[in-house]
Amino acid sequence: MKNILKPSSVAIGLVLAVAVSSPAIQASDKKVQATDLVDIFEKLGGKHPGFRKAHAKGLCATGTFEPSASEHFKGAALLENGNLPVSMRFSLGGANPNSDERAPGTRGLGMQIKLPNGSFHTFTGNNFPVFAGKDPETFFGFLSTLLPDENGKSDPAKTMAFIKANPSVQANAMWNQQAKTPASFANTEFFGLHTFFFNKASGDKTKFRWNIVPSLGVKTLEKDEASNMPAEFLADTFAKQLKEGKVSFTIMASIGEPEDSEIDPSQQWPDQRPQVAIGEVTVLTSGGEACNNTNFDPNMMSAGFSPSADPILRMRSPAYAISFGKRLSNQ
Q: Domain coordinates of the chain in residue numbers?
């Protein structure tokens, strides 16, 4: 996976300089639970019963997965059963199902591939290449600085002070500062962020991180271009692209070395790591509600694959389950 996030020392200096006069704020000193994260998403985005607590606004799609042969994943059922059906959900970040699509920032993808035996392999990623924190406590601490006070106003100085005191948040903060509005879900690259393993029959392990590359290329809108778009344009743009030609994505795996972090999604791996194609996903349809009640848990994988001990990755399963339960019960 190429290292696309290389902020200049000047840019980093500007971010940190804002925080110099503010007191340092540390990550939460209490053990953060999944319920804490679900609750703070609601506080930040408002209560929207029946919707996801994060990535509330989304677009369902269906497609097929055509696997690629690879020695790194030899024996994987995911790659040895021919073409497989795929359910997808593209989304905007945040808890607001009415988010303005002209705004820059987070876009997400949940993808579930169904194997012949009824099992699933799930890929869940975002368009940023690094996570906002090395662990749940740091991430929760960062989100806490965004909460409004009793007057409904947040304090940017507090957020900047936290970023200064917590280096693992800085790369994601720089990405957000530079982010533009994606032109389409079909022109967005998605990053899995976490480390996974494929366990071979021989006992050897392939350590990897994945990213999903759009065949139509990555395209973003300048500020003035975005302002001229309707508040909702992503579904129509995607449908138009499907009608005009092929929309597809290649799932790539970056093969890790022993020194590459297995537990810190705020750290990118060096871009010199070998890149291996896992397969191609071709989108067939978009729209509808088929994916609305799907729980895209990235820890749900097919035989042979296993998650790392990344604490953010481990937190996703209970957090997704809580959000899923609230959604089904219209909370």
A: 1-30+131-178, 41-128+182-328
Residue type, 91: S
160-206 pLDDT, tens digit each: 999 999 999 999 999 999 999 999 999 999 999 999 999 998 889 99
Q: Is 41-128+182-328 assigned to CATH 3.40.630.30? A: no
* Structure tokens belonging to residue 168: 């693992």
Average pLDDT over residues 30-56: 93
Burial class (CB in 10 A: 0-12, 13-18, 19+), 202: exposed
Instruction: For strands 196-199 and 220-221, give the pairing.
Output: unpaired
Which pTM does this prediction carry? 0.91
Label the pairing between strands 248-255 and 190-191. Answer: unpaired
Asked if 205 and 262 touch (Cβ cutoff 8 Å), the reply is no
Contact between 280 and 66 under an 8 Å Cβ cutoff? The reply is yes
Q: In terms of Cα–Cα distance, which of 161, 53, 127 is closest to 97?
A: 53
| Structure-block tokens of residue 281 | 């996903």
* DSSP state letters, 57-122: SEEEEEEEEEE---GGGTT-GGGSS-SEEEEEEEEESSS-TT--TTS-S-EEEEEEEEPTTS-EEE
Outline where the chain has alpha helix (H).
Answer: 9-19, 34-45, 136-144, 156-165, 170-178, 223-227, 234-244, 311-328
